[in-house]
């Protein structure tokens, strides 16, 4: 029986993936190269440092740790500038409604995100109050597909992993949920997220009925 839902943030609750993409692209361009939207898929769900390492690899550049820190900070400053301007209408269709319907049905809710900026985003779009527990990049050390972020969420909610469902748009996130012994609903394309128990286009297609059939 499902007792808790754990939601990824970027790409599930809000479409911040476009802001991450813009900021990383700007950084790559300043370093003298570019990367495609297809490559960008590989950055979803991946931590800030790991994303930077991938991008440097694509540009065939090697940097010292100090230089990497400066580059990651530069990217994050542009990203923060963009998320600071976010408004409540940037919550993805059906996301707020589905989280609310969980709460009304007595199902616990948590956020499970790799982002260190999740607090800012939740507050800017006005949904911080909707989650019983928030686990984000400031609280975890092992990146998805390690299940740490979701297991911590389940633990703080006091619900066993097998009674949790994770909602994820990234391959690494779907794998993290499976590695944690949880059910998982993929948000996006079945071609990419085929390992999930169910794949939908967005939370606007989700319902308590579908949840109970997982
Ligand atoms: C994930 C995003 O949620 O958070 C990744 O999908 C991002 O693209 C990661 O790199 C870390 O985010 P932040 O905000 O801490 O740089
Ligand atoms: Mg995501």
TrEMBL record:
SUPFAM superfamilies: HAD-like
Cofactor(s) essential for the protein: Mg(2+)
GO annotation, biological process: carbohydrate metabolic process
Enzyme nomenclature, EC number: 5.4.2.6
Binding site for substrate: 8-10, 24, 43-48, 51, 75, 113-117, 144
Catalytic activity: beta-D-glucose 1-phosphate = beta-D-glucose 6-phosphate
Record-linked InterPro entries: B-phosphoglucomutase_hydrolase, Beta-PGM, Beta-PGM-like, HAD-like_sf, HAD-SF_hydro_IA, HAD_sf, PGP-like_dom2
GO molecular function: beta-phosphoglucomutase activity; magnesium ion binding
Amino-acid positions noted as binding Mg(2+) in the UniProt annotation, renumbered to this chain: 8, 10, 168-169
Free-text remark on how the cofactor is bound: Binds 2 magnesium ions per subunit.
Site (Important for catalytic activity and assists the phosphoryl transfer reaction to Asp8 by balancing charge and orienting the reacting groups): 113, 144
Protein family membership: Belongs to the HAD-like hydrolase superfamily. CbbY/CbbZ/Gph/YieH family.
PANTHER family: 6-PHOSPHOGLUCONATE PHOSPHATASE, HEXITOL PHOSPHATASE B
The name this protein goes by in its record: Beta-phosphoglucomutase
Organism (species): Mucilaginibacter ginsenosidivorans
């Amino acid at each position: 029986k499902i007792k808790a839902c754990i939601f990824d943030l970027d790409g599930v609750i809000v479409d911040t993936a476009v802001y991450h993409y813009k900021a990383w692209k700007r950084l790559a361009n300043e370093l003298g190269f570019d990367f495609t939207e297809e490559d960008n898929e590989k950055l979803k769900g991946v931590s800030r440092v790991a994303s930077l390492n991938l991008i440097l690899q694509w540009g065939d550049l090697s940097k010292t740790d100090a230089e990497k820190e400066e580059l990651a900070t530069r990217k994050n400053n542009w990203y923060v500038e963009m998320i600071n301007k976010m408004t409540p209408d940037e919550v993805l269709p059906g996301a707020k409604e589905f989280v609310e319907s969980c709460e009304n049905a007595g199902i616990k809710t948590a956020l499970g995100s790799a982002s260190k900026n999740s607090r800012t985003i939740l507050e800017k779009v006005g949904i911080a109050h909707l989650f019983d527990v928030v686990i984000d990049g400031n609280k975890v050390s092992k990146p998805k597909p390690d299940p740490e972020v979701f297991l911590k969420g389940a633990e703080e909610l006091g619900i066993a992993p097998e009674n949790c469902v994770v909602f994820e748009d990234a391959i690494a996130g779907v794998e993290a949920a499976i590695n944690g012994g949880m059910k998982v609903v993929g948000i996006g394309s079945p071609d990419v997220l085929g390992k999930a128990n169910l794949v939908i286009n967005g939370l606007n297609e989700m319902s308590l009925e579908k949840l109970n059939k997982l």
